[in-house]
Design brief:
The structure is a single chain. This protein is an alpha/beta fold. It has 5 helices and 5 strands; from the N terminus they run βααβαβαββα. Strands 2-1-3-4-5 form a 5-stranded parallel β-sheet, sandwiched between helices. β3, α4 (about 85-90) and β4 form a beta-alpha-beta unit. α2 (about 30-45) runs parallel beside α5 and α3 (about 55-65) runs parallel beside α4 (about 85-90). The chain is globular. About 35% of the residues are buried. The structure holds ligand CA2.
């Protein structure tokens, strides 16, 4: 079985660490990727890391994960709150999905409290900064089980 995990990031996450540090912290998306590769390495996972500002590109990345990746970690960013299309794409993925938000979406504006993606996520992590991605990878590793030797 594949040990690939697709880590998908939505719009404006390329700005992490460059603006609004009081909400999103000082870590950049490159720091997030480095943390994912470090934790993924410890867990024996092969990390495929993507970011796009375009909904269609994220949907294509979800399609590409079908039959290839063991799990998906996704921070859909603003599309969390708007996109039935991303929800539909994720419903066609067979493995575990963990949704991550860098900020605690529950202590912000009301419109951020609802995520379409949460309906298909086996777990949701919010407010743990870049570390949340590492937690998500630990959860995926637990759900897919030990590597076969
Ligand atoms: O907390 C999260 O991870 C979010 O998914 C981030 C999204 C936001 O729309 C969600 O409600 C929660 C925003 C992506 C980052 O946007 C930035 C904009 C300016 C500066 C830095 C980041």
């Amino acid at each position: 079985m594949s040990r690939i995990v697709s880590i998908l990031n939505g719009p404006n996450l390329d700005l992490l660490g460059k603006r609004q540090a009081e909400i999103y912290g000082h870590e950049t998306l490159a720091d997030v990727e480095a943390e994912c590769r470090r934790v993924g390495g410890e867990l024996g996972l092969a990390i495929e890391f993507h970011q796009s500002n375009r909904e269609d590109a994220i949907i294509e990345q979800i399609h590409a994960a079908r039959g290839r990746s063991a799990g998906i970690v996704i921070n859909p960013a603003a599309f969390s709150h708007t996109s039935v299309a991303i929800l539909d794409a994720l419903q066609a993925f067979e493995g575990p999905i963990v949704e991550v938000h860098v900020s605690n979406i529950h202590k912000r504006e009301d419109f951020r409290r609802h995520s379409y993606v949460s309906a298909v996520a086996s777990g949701v992590i919010a407010g743990c900064g870049a570390q949340g991605y590492g937690f998500a990878l630990q959860r995926i590793a637990k759900l897919i089980g030990e590597p076969k030797n």
